[in-house]
Structures are given as structure tokens and as C-alpha cells.
Amino acid sequence: MQAVILVGGEGTRLRPLTFGTPKPMVPLFGIPFLERTLGRLKEAGVNDVVLAAGYLPRAIEDHLGDGSRIGMRISYVVETTPLGTAGALRNLADHITDSFFVLNGDVLTSLDLRAMIAFHRRHGGVATLHAIRVDDPSAFGCILRDADDRISSFVEKPPRHEAPTNEANAGTYLLERSVLDRIPAGRNVSIERETFPELIASGAHLVSFVTDDYWLDIGRPQQYLQAHGDVLDRKLELASSGDPALSNRGRFWYVGAVGAPANFRLPVFIGEGVAIDSSAIVGPYAVIGDRCSVAAGAEIRDAILWDGVEIGAGAGISDAILASDVCVGSGARVTTGAVVGHRARIAADAQFEPDARIVADAETIATPT
Q1: What is the CB neighbour count within 10 angstroms for residue 174?
Q2: Three-state SS for 331?
Q3: Most buried among 21, 136, 173, 359, by the most CB within 10 A?
């Protein structure tokens, strides 16, 4: 069993976090999201992975290498021109020799991959598609199936009141190697809009594996914040990283934890080497990365701080994401959907409009708007 992870996107919706950081390398509690996904695969017994990369592939390869550090084998295929979901798969066909998973690089889910493997083998089809039940299917592609789970058709983003089912395509597929032979080479091909419908029309056996698992696309700032909040609320248990040196880094303080500092409002997560003044208020839902410092009287809640962030005295951070090595001046307010890029310097007493995107390097002062 192999796996392909689609990691070629530029992460435009997460900018400025993704200026210089590929979207798959955005951290989830201090560990790159891609490494969390690899941990899920490893737990399911899948150790041979191909990364379909495009944007800043060197940064991914520099971190993961050939996968030996985490007990896996990782190969890389880099697209120079976007080829769509199926086109990306056809582009790496030479690396696939067996049945294989296809996973999106920005989906956080509790899906039991071992159960999906068993389902696929039991049904004997060429493709198994994971589907989830949703309240509003209008934002998704819906999968229609019969009583034997065989897929009959797809309906793309139907109006809510016209949706024939609430079972939405969740974007994890388990495919036989033969599917790649049905994809044209050298052009952009959508697996959802072209390949799967053509397979069904030809009489191929595709089945839908429907679950009620946790599922979230973390490709937007609010969903990225939500993912951390959901883990802190224990709605999802994270897969451990394949690297023992990282698996236990940092500490979760859940609601009801005994011995939490008096200035913590649980739940919170604190990385390693963090310095927090006893008069600062931390939480609830504060995620503070390694080597951060929080000065006297500062308050951090509903926020994510990457590594090396400095928060000045009396500053307030809420409903915000701060990338690595940001420095926030005393009394500044970074709130209401703000996203701050790497190495930004926020001036003392600065305030910003809602949903501000603050892009700066080490020499730039971000002043109030």
C-alpha cells in the first residue's frame, strides 16, 4: 500500500503565513501539518509516500528528506505547471506500483485509514471515495450511491434545498493502480469532474465509504484557528509525529487540568522554552510556540503564535495568527482576524482594521492603519 499527498498549492488564502512557508509546512501545535498527515499514514501501516509538490518544494524536502528520520520512504514529484488533481497523479505514475491512497495536504480528519483499506478490499472496486455527512452539502460535491455502496453519480455543489444527498466528497481516495492508465497525460485533468465520472460511465466499480468523522479544510485562517480550538476541546486526537523527538514537544493544558499556572485560562498549549510573565493572561484557546516570550500585563486568547514570537508589555492578541519571529510592541492590539507574516515588527500601541494582513520583514515597522 502506497500513498500520494497533494501538496502543490500555494496557500494563497493563508497569506502572509505562506510567504516563504509552503502550506503543508504550516504548523499544527508546533509540528508541520504534513508531518501530522504522515503520522496518520504510518499508524495505518502505509510507509511509502509520494509527495506531489509544486510551491516551494525545497522547503518540504529539506525538512522531511527521504523519510528515513520518521521511518518512512518519501519520494517527490514536482509540477512545473498545475495539472489538476488527476493530472498530478498521472504525472507521478512511474512511482506507483500498488493500491494507493490520495490525500489532500490541507485536510484535517479523524478518518480511520485502516478501516477504509478493509472496506476497499471487501468491495473489490477500482476506487473507494471517502464521504462525510454534512448539514449543508451546497459547498461540496455530493456522492450518490446505491444500497451496496456503489457510486452511481456525482452532483457538484447543489443548492441546499435541491441536494439529493447530504453525503459529501471528503477528498480522501483509495485507488487501484489501473486508474492511472485512464488519465490522459500532459494536460490539466480533474479527478472529480472528469476521471471519476468517466470511470462510472465505463462500468467501473467505484464505492463510497461514508463516515461521521471529524473533517476540516484548514486552508483559511479561521479554519486554521478552529482546528487548534477543536483539538484543545478534544474533538480530535492528533496522530503522533513519526519523529520521537517531536511527538511530545510542548504541553497541552486542557480544561480541568490540575496545577496550571494561575494566569492560564484553559485550554492552552505551550511550546518549549517559553517565557511568560506571571501577570500576563494566557488563554483560553492560546497556542504558543517554542521560544516565545510574553511580557507583563499582556493578554493572549483565541490566538496562535508560531515559534520565536515576542509580545510586549500590555499588548493584546486575540482572534489572530502570528507567524515566526514576530515582535509586538507594548500596548499594541492585534485582533479580529489579523494574520501577521514572518518577522513583522508591530509598533507600540498599534491597532489594525479587522482581518488585517500584515506583511513585513525584519526591517519593517507595521504602523497603525
Answers
A1: 25
A2: coil
A3: 173
Q: For 265-284, how does the pLDDT look when each residue is reduced to its tens digit (9 = 90+)? A: 999 999 999 999 999 999 99
- In the chain, what's the furthest Cα-to-Cα distance? 67
Phi–psi pair at 109, nearest 5 degrees: -150, 155
Burial of 215 (0-12, 13-18, 19+ CB in 10 A): buried
Inter-CA distances, 134 with 77, 142, 170, 193, Å: 34, 10, 10, 20
Cβ neighbours of residue 64 closer than 8 Å, sequence gap 6 or more: 34, 35, 38, 51, 70, 74
- Which strands sit side by side in the sheet containing 345-346, from one edge to the other? 275-276, 293-294, 310-311, 327-328, 345-346, 365-366
Tens-digit pLDDT profile for residues 147-191:
899 999 888 887 877 788 888 999 999 999 999 999 998 888 999
Q: In sequence order, what are the residues at sequence separation of 6 or more whose Cβ sits closer than 8 angstroms to the Cβ of residue 229?
A: 285, 302
Dihedral over Cα of 234, 235, 241, 246: its sign: negative
Spatial separation of the C-alpha atoms in residues 285 and 269, rounded to whole Å: 8
The set of cell numbers assigned to 283 is 488563554
At 47, which amino acid appears?
A: N
